[in-house]
């Protein structure tokens, strides 16, 4: 392709909200063999919502939600945000004599006023959070977080978590003072176009893969919904780049599509890194392409544009 053709293609991309950082990236995209998608915020909407909160101890529901939300209050994780929102809503609705006006006053003056003081807050990547409330340790996260802290998961709780995961939800386990006190189920719906894009990639000879830090069962349920058979789950934040390298063996051209801080090493490791425009700045910096419309169809647009620019029609 001539420099003019590259310039024209870059302009066409920009007009469609596909920002391409340089002619090399534009050229590499025509040869993409594998596209590795991050799950949360890339294939899914990244709008986690608590759908279930089950208390397994004798504890009052409001008290349970207060403990969990307080523990998560210092976390930046989307799961933490979902939990805080749910607990806030519960307390808001739970206010016995609240009139419409009373509720809005409460929201303004005491939005998160019901949160408890915590000490020694720690966020454990790929696991969850822990801290102390009233001198007792609280753990909020996945099975690994609990078992690594010697908290046993009773079989009826395990069964409940498995059911959540089989319906594509993430189970968040909560232990207080070394006892499992409850479980939350969080759902994050797929983007509307996700399944069509996966199918479209396969039609043009590109292999779709999903990578996530989430557990195997949830990952597989989501992958099934979106039509991806090759899943890499329970990948630690640092491990996503290794997944990219494993597909690059034999010289295959690999693209990564992601939105999070966690994804930036993989975006940099990929031959073609594509960041979701709504993603974090670090991901956008690490990528070769930025998909400004936040629409996964633009992954196909990007490959098409490169193929049309660099493939001679005979
Ligand atoms: P993802 O690739 O889905 O962004 P992360 O590495 O951020 O994954 O998290 C992996 C898993 O660790 C989550 O699915 C969840 O089970 C657990 N986890 C991480 N942070 C939190 C948190 N703040 N609260 C509860 N669970 C968490
Ligand atoms: Mg993500």
UniProtKB/TrEMBL annotation:
GO terms for molecular function: ATP binding; ATP hydrolysis activity; ATPase-coupled monoatomic cation transmembrane transporter activity; copper ion binding. Keywords: ATP-binding, Copper, Copper transport, Ion transport, Membrane, Metal-binding, Nucleotide-binding, Repeat, Translocase, Transmembrane, Transmembrane helix, Transport. The keyword Transmembrane applies. One of its GO terms (cellular component) is membrane. It comes from the Eukaryota. Its main location: membrane. It is found in: Membrane. GO terms for biological process: copper ion transport; plant-type hypersensitive response. Belongs to the cation transport ATPase (P-type) (TC 3.A.3) family. Type IB subfamily. This is HMA domain-containing protein. It comes from Fraxinus pennsylvanica. The lineage of its organism: Eukaryota, Viridiplantae, Streptophyta, Embryophyta, Tracheophyta. The chain holds residues 615 to 928 of 997 of the full protein.
